[in-house]
């Protein structure tokens, strides 16, 4: 693919500014694309065992072609890797590789690897640079951009971490062909989120084009680029989530509680939790009289059209009761003075943050979503 077909989204954060490059065949060109951010021709790659089998040798070959040496560590795939023992393993390995302050760590993988590698880079020698090569739809449209890095605690999702911006993001949309249909769909939860939180026109476009995302590279590139551009704009205005950035958390108060309740297991992928969370956030908004019933109906219909879970009853196995779920929500990072804050909506594309949520309405929404 020529450069004219590659989309560049710039994240303008002064001395922490960087580009997100979105296009086809970027892994094959990774050596040339990464070289400008390197102080010396050597990188340490953190990846997972599944991604290593699919893409690591191509990446290392592309680096070698440009004279860049690389060493790689592959961790187990899955959300349970986003935990202290694997962070320790990654950091100790990076030290063993003698990664220096001016060196670059490369995160090759989905959100788990990107978040963990970014956090490892943030704490290694008090901070080294890193490059994200996201290999899932979710990581391309969301977690690789914006600098939220970290790991999970049994008490909640992403509770240990740091803001640490990458120096470059390479989103090669071809690699999404290797995802399982379930993993691809899970990432779609975050794509739909952008339309729901702030762009009704994009949501309408997704209602028409969403099903083609899995097969049409043009549609895919447009959806990824639009999502990244929206995120870059929000991150530019509110890098450390003092206000507007909390909108990117639409669906996450519910979603993170459900992920903790299911033990960060295969029962519920992060993007699936976000999809259910978005549906519930719109249900709650309608129940509180903030938006018409048409909005949650459209959200539910679209998630169903895309084959996504949207209710608590779509999660296999038993879930804890409402009190336990609400207690898990109490660890949410948006909580202020012990008060839960939710991202609600006045309509599609009109999200806002509220600390004024009636517990009765919340319980009603959770109860209805169990049926
Ligand atoms: O980048 C952000 O800001 C987001 O909230 C995007 C979320 O989709 C992402 O899952 C993020 O990691 C959640 O952050 P958290 O602070 O709520 O854990």
Question: Could you explain how this protein is built, in words?
Answer:
NAD(+) binds at residues 111-115, 135-136, 148, 157. It is found in: Cytoplasm. It is an enzyme of class 4 (lyase). GO terms for molecular function: 3-dehydroquinate synthase activity; metal ion binding; nucleotide binding. Keywords: Amino-acid biosynthesis, Aromatic amino acid biosynthesis, Cobalt, Cytoplasm, Lyase, Metal-binding, NAD, Nucleotide-binding, Zinc. Helix 4 (111-123) links the parallel strand 5 and strand 6. The N and C termini lie far apart (48 Å). The chain is built from 13 helices and 11 strands. The protein is an alpha/beta fold. It has helices at 30-34, 49-65, 84-96, 111-123, 137-143, 181-198, 200-209, 217-237, 252-261, 270-287, 294-305, 322-329, 359-369, and strands at 7-11, 18-23, 42-48, 69-75, 104-109, 129-134, 148-153, 156-163, 168-172, 342-345, 351-354. A 7-stranded mixed beta sheet has the order 1-2-9-6-5-3-4. The chain has a two-stranded antiparallel sheet with strand order 7-8. The longest helix is centred in the middle third of the chain and has 21 residues, at 217-237. The mean pLDDT is 96. It has 2 domains: 3-177, Rossmann fold (3-Layer(aba) Sandwich), CATH 3.40.50; 181-369, Dehydroquinate synthase-like - alpha domain (Dehydroquinate synthase-like, alpha domain, Up-down Bundle), CATH 1.20.1090.
């Amino acid at each position: 693919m020529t450069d004219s077909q590659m989309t560049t989204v710039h994240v303008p954060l002064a001395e922490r500014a960087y580009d997100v490059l979105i296009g086809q065949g970027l892994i094959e060109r990774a050596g040339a694309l990464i070289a400008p951010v390197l102080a010396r021709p050597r990188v340490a790659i953190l990846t997972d065992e599944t991604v290593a089998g699919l893409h690591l040798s191509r990446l290392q070959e592309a680096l070698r072609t440009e004279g860049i040496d690389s060493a790689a560590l592959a961790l187990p795939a899955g959300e349970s890797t986003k935990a202290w023992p694997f962070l320790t393993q990654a950091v100790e390995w990076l030290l063993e590789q003698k990664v220096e302050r001016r060196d670059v760590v490369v995160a090759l993988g989905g959100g788990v690897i990107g978040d963990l590698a970014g956090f490892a880079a943030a704490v290694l020698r008090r901070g080294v640079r890193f490059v994200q090569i996201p290999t899932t739809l979710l990581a391309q449209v969301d977690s690789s951009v914006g600098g939220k890095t970290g790991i999970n605690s049994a008490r909640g999702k992403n509770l240990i971490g740091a803001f640490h911006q990458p120096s470059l993001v390479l989103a090669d949309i071809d690699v999404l062909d290797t995802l399982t249909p379930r993993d691809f769909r899970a990432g779609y939860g975050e794509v739909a989120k952008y339309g729901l939180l702030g762009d009704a026109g994009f949501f309408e476009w997704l209602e028409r084009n969403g099903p083609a995302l899995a097969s049409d590279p043009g549609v895919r590139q447009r959806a990824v680029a639009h999502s990244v551009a929206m995120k870059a704009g929000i991150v530019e205005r509110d890098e450390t989530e003092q206000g507007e950035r909390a909108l990117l958390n639409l669906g996450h108060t519910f979603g993170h509680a459900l992920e903790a309740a299911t033990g960060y297991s295969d029962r519920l992928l992060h993007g699936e939790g976000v999809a259910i969370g978005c549906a519930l956030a719109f249900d709650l908004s309608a129940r509180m009289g903030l938006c018409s019933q048409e909005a949650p109906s459209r959200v539910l219909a679209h998630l169903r059209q895309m084959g996504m879970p949207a209710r608590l009853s779509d999660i296999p196995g038993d879930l804890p009761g409402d009190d336990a779920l609400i207690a898990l929500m109490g660890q949410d990072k948006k909580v202020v003075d012990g008060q839960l804050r939710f991202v609600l909506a006045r309509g599609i594309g009109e999200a806002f943050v509220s600390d004024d949520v009636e517990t009765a309405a919340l319980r009603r929404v959770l109860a209805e979503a169990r049926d």
